[in-house]
Amino acid sequence: MTFIQFALNNVKRNTRAYVSYFLSCMFAVTVFFMYAVVIFHPSIREYEFHNVVQSGIIASQVMIYGFSFIFVLYSTGTFVKSRKKEYGLLTTLGIKKSQLNRLLILENTMIGLAAILAGIAVGALLTKLFLMVFSAILGIGDILPFHLSLRAIGLTIILFFVMFELNTLAVVWTLRTNSIMEVFRGSTKSNRKPTFSWFISVFALAAVLYAYYLAYTADITTIGARMFPILAFIIPGTYFLFTQLSIATTSIFKKNKFFLYRNLNLLTISDLAFKLKENARILFIVTILSAVAFTSSGVLFNLFRSVEAETVRFVPQAVSLISNENANLEDFKKTIENVEAQFQDKFIPYESMLASTIPAEMESNSPNWDTTPIMIYSYSDYQKMMDLKDEEKLRHPKFSEAILLSQDLVNRFTAKVPDSLTIKVGQTNTDLAIHREASPLSSSISTNVQLIVSDKRYEQFIQAADASSVRYNYVMHIPNAFDYATETEDVLNRVNTEIAYADSQADFYLMMRQTMSYLFFFGIFISVLFFLAAGSILYFRMYQDIDKDLKHYYSLYRIGLTSKEMKKIAGKQLALLFFLPFSVAAIHAGFAFKALQNILVSNVLLPSIFVYLLYFAVHFINFIIIRNIYTTKLNKVM
Amino acid sequence: MPILTAANLTKIYGSKRGIHHEALHQFHLSVDKGEFLGIMGPSGSGKTTLLNLLSTIDTPTSGAVTINQTTVTNLTKNKLATFRRKETGFIFQDYNLLETLTVGENIMLPLTLNKWKVKEMTKRLKLVTEQLGIEDITEKRIFEVSGGQLQRAAIARAIIHDPTIIYADEPTGNLDSKASRQVMESLQFLNQEKKTTTIMVTHDPFAASFCGRVIFIKDGRMFNEIHKGDNRQRFFQDILNVQSLLGGNMDDFHSIRFK
User: Fold this and answer.
1) Given its phi and psi angles, is residue A175 left (phi above 0), alpha (psi -120 to 50 degrees) or beta?
2) Distance, in angstroms, between A160 CA and closest chain B CA?
3) Which residues from B are below 8 Å from A564, CB to CB?
4) What was the ipTM of the complex prediction?
5) Which of A448, A534, A566, B114 is surrounded by the most beta carbons within 10 Å?
6) Which of A340-344, A483-487, A510-514, A524-528 shows the lowest per-residue confidence on average (mean pLDDT)?
7) What is the C-alpha R_g of chain B?
8) Lowest-confidence range among A78-87, A517-526, B47-56?
9) Is the dihedral of CA A60, A63, A69, A70 positive or negative?
10) CB of A542 within 8 A of CB of A286?
11) Cα separation of A590 and A208, whole Å?
């Protein structure tokens, strides 16, 4: 047996312990590689979005790489440290520290190389599928052809190899094998009674609840400012939740002797207290990783799904064409005819109308509303525009009144509207009583505030205004507008901007959809990576503990614990270690979704539940597999 | 009237293709109610195998063990586990106490497994800990008390549910002479006062001298059997004599332990 064979055997015969770590690394490599394939794809340069995609992918790559770095550092560290006893034995046999280092570096290099090669192999197999998904999500008509660039392979191999080596060096460098005795004791320290502080427990709970409150009440104006405080409360809160409050809870259970001494509870609960204490940091890390995974994928999925609803919110009218200042009515009408003809050519159904509007300015003592440009519409035009969309109308304003329409989102940012405002049309000023409503009209290039006045008042304004300043607004309603988004945008792009300013849902929708697709596409794989890493850490932990557990259950077996009871206890404890972080993460994410709901108009409930269910299914399968491995192993001593 | 009988017990270790080793060869034994039996023999003689078979932890290759009219060798694994927790008590060399529980909780463990009422459990705990002189340490954790106390706690756990038989595997193996004496006196007390049937494997002639009868095993077969008279000192001498007859390698499992 040569030295290299020895190292190889160490890895090969520890496969079960390494398997989940290996798979997580492999997945990271696979994702990294597939993104790299997209960046280096020769045909991607032909697309206009190529710059956006490239920077998005590079950002994702940096995140994947950074995260993998930390994950590998952590996993290698715990794994190497759990084998201290073995190093003690080798030291007694006379291994030099330099040889031991070489052994560890060799082993980790083997695992790293295997993960890189397997990751690239899987990536190569999945590349076609990935390119198909990529093309579908980004709405590219034809699928990018299969192409494995050597640069992508080279980049992946080099970066990940460097990462594995650096991490191994870091771990080996920090590994101290002081005295053989110390090493022989390995990681088994005496089980001190788990302690906790009520003060910190209460603080942890309060911090988490306060963060929940902040998220629950956040809206679009406050979310930006609250983001950091929420994280600052939730992260330490969660940490102490696991290190303190969980122990506090089990100790409450322990106080109740009638509960504690019943049947298997004694074993389950007191073991659990130790497991919670030992694993508090792991549970914390797993919770945060899962929470990040849930939240980001949930938010991304919701955003992706909400594009249509948000479009309608920001651009309430399918198409509006507003005549330009210097354009005459004849030219404008010609443009309209042209647009209509093109719509008919493309068999896009639509209804339309023409409204007239007067651009004006408001004056007020309140500086927020002084010199605000507005568009004035008559109530009857407003009525027709609402009829077009088949929407409910506001009541007719009195002669002395006006309805101020502005976007609901804008309303939250701007100061309250004064009860009355001065409207300046031409040279005349008119004071009108004002009440504000959310706008059902698209905003135009000059303003996003509209004013609805009674028909009589409108007549008056027209006379006051300069005849040439009156504008026309051609409004279209397209049933299922989103189905014709590309065509609509195409038609409107050809409108001469000297004559009319076009504003459409299609434009907004396509832009939003593209942005969200990018986000979704880049975010989702990273979320999944986080989630897998969390599962892998749990598996790792279970594997480290299994020898101790074997001894523990053998002790119990000898005094008459049945294997059914063992399965019950072990299953319960494992389930808690698995689903406690999952549930906490799910609740954390739930409040994040609530904050998201406060921002969006579309309902986030169903998409969020969908995301939860998906993750739950994966987690549950993972749990069942790991539990079976675990109990089968335990059963061997039974 | 025998409470435990073993007939034709044979245990062969080794896989189907590997090298076979017959640890126990057609062994016969019967233990009466209230007896205190010691099993001795050189290392590798099969005494621990015998105890494991008698105590249902291991299953024989052939032969039968009957405890209290139940042929335990016919029971399924799960039934055996429940049988063990009701009918038998165990004392091990390494105490086999759970680190996560307090001393008292460890002692009560068989009762919680048997679903006793909490009130009766605590009553019973008080009774046995007083008998063994460890009532002050029930709230303590395992690592806070000495080896002798731990072994007495293990004895308390073994007897708390009034088992039919107590099995002890090298109960003094990890103890110094003073603690050994305390532990053996406790076992003797239980045997004399409570008429607890006890089967103990030991290599320590001093510990064995507390038994009523000692059997010696060599190479998986019965070698000799001696009974105690009135005098423990005489009995101790007899044991030493048989040991020298057996050969001088009685102590070779004294291994260095890292603690």
Assistant:
1) beta
2) 42
3) 78
4) 0.71
5) A534
6) A524-528
7) 18
8) A78-87
9) negative
10) no
11) 13
Which one of B96, B105, B143 has the shortest CB-CB distance to A555?
B96
Q: Look at residue B42 and give its three-state secondary structure.
A: coil
Q: Measured between alpha carbons, how far is A34 from B81 in angstroms, rounded to an integer? A: 54
User: Quick one: pLDDT band at residue A208, thresholds 50, 70, 90?
Assistant: very high
Residue contact A266–B109, C-beta within 8 A: yes
* A442, A371 Cβ separation under 8 angstroms: no
H helices within A346-464, ranges in order? 379-389, 408-413, 455-464
> Residue A555 and residue B98: Cβ atoms within 8 Å?
yes
pLDDT of residue A115: 92
* Residue to test with chain B: of A558, A566, A569, A636, most B Cβ within 10 A: A558
Report d(CA A193, CA A185) in Å as an integer.
Answer: 19
Asked if B50 and B9 touch (Cβ cutoff 8 Å), the reply is yes
* B43/B41 Cα distance (integer angstroms): 7
Q: Which residue has the higher pLDDT, B136 or A274?
A: B136
Residue positions counted in chain B: 259
Single-letter residue type at A399: F
- Residues B141-200 pLDDT 10s: 888 888 888 888 998 988 888 888 999 998 888 888 888 888 899 889 888 888 889 999
What is the pLDDT at residue A188? 47
Tell me whether residues A181 and B258 touch, CB distance under 8 A: yes
d(CA A74, CA A288) in angstroms, rounded, equals 15
Nearest C-alpha in B relative to A265: B112
Question: Could you tell me which residues are beta bridge partners of residue A435?
Answer: A403
What is the distance between the alpha carbons of residues A549 and B74, in angstroms, rounded to a whole number?
Answer: 29
Q: Residue A424 forms beta bridges with which residues?
A: A361, A429
pLDDT tens for each residue of A533-571: 888 788 777 777 777 788 888 888 887 788 888 888 888
- Which chain B residue has the Cα nearest residue A635? B77
Q: How far is CA A332 from CA A490, A519, B68, in A?
A: 19, 39, 108
Q: Strand, coil or helix: what is A23? A: helix
Name the token pair of A467.
Answer: 């005849």
Q: Is B115 left (phi over 0), alpha (psi -120 to 50) or beta?
A: left
User: Using one digit for the tens of pLDDT, what is the confidence trace for B5-22?
Assistant: 999 899 888 766 667 888
pLDDT at A383 over 70: yes
pLDDT of A195 reads 74
Residue type, A274: F
Q: Are B128 and B107 in contact (CB under 8 A)?
A: yes
Contact B99 A191 (CB under 8 A): yes
Mutate to test the interface with A, among B109, B121, B122, B159 (most CBs of A within 10 A): B109
Interface of A with B (CB under 8 A): 181, 184, 190-191, 193, 257-258, 261-267, 270-271, 273-274, 552, 555-565, 638
Instruction: Map tokens 């405002």 to a residue.
Output: A421
Q: How far apart are CA A340 and CA A345, in angstroms?
A: 9
Strand partners, A471: A357
CB contacts, 8 Å: A264 with chain B:
112-113
| Mean pLDDT score across all residues of chain A | 83
| Residue A539 in tokens | 């598996």
The C-alpha of B229 sits at a distance from chain A's nearest C-alpha, in angstroms, of 33
Q: Are B113 and B82 in contact (CB under 8 A)?
A: no
In order of B82, B167, B182, the CA distances from B178 in angstroms are 35, 22, 6
